[in-house]
């Protein structure tokens, strides 16, 4: 007998999106490498810079992004069950928590600038503002994707591949933040 194995498992999203995500992660890996080298070359400066960071705000932003990712997962689970109105509610919750990340980051940037720190202060703050700023742009793109997910869940035909791909992008943003949080606030 010839048994044909069927496997319904697949990589979520579109393959082109994965090329973009892997490329983006490669660029951030370079950023993390630059940070690590500079931290090794200037340990005192980086320790002094870390001492100026608001660990509470960094932790709030970490929790906010993890919560948003949970909402994205719950939304996709509902969408896969064709419960699009429930999925939409989870995507709205993810969007609100994503916006909270931006608000918290604004207050953190404001705090640093009012204390006299900016990208020209020293290498620590230059890298801090550049890397977290680029990450913030990714959060904004992720929020646009979440808004598109909300709109699409209101239609009669929903493209699950789009929801999966946008979710994967959001999770990438989350993972990148966790690494930034570790490098900037803890290590």
From TrEMBL:
Keywords, comma-separated and alphabetical: Membrane, Transmembrane, Transmembrane helix
A GO-annotated cellular component: plasma membrane
Transmembrane parts of this sequence: 17-35, 55-76, 88-107, 127-150, 162-186
Domain of life: Bacteria
Transmembrane helix in keyword set: yes
GO terms, biological process: aerobic electron transport chain
Main location: membrane
One MF annotation (Gene Ontology) recorded for this entry: cytochrome-c oxidase activity
Membrane topology, from the record: Multi-pass membrane protein
InterPro entries attached to this UniProt entry: Cyt_c/ubiquinol_Oxase_su3, Cyt_c_oxidase-like_su3, Cyt_c_oxidase_su3-like_sf, Cyt_c_oxidase_su3_a-hlx
Sequence ranges assigned to domain Heme-copper oxidase subunit III family profile in this UniProt record: 17-187
Protein localization: Cell membrane; Membrane
Family the UniProt entry places it in: Belongs to the cytochrome c oxidase subunit 3 family.
Protein name: Heme-copper oxidase subunit III family profile domain-containing protein
Native organism: Acinetobacter beijerinckii ANC 3835
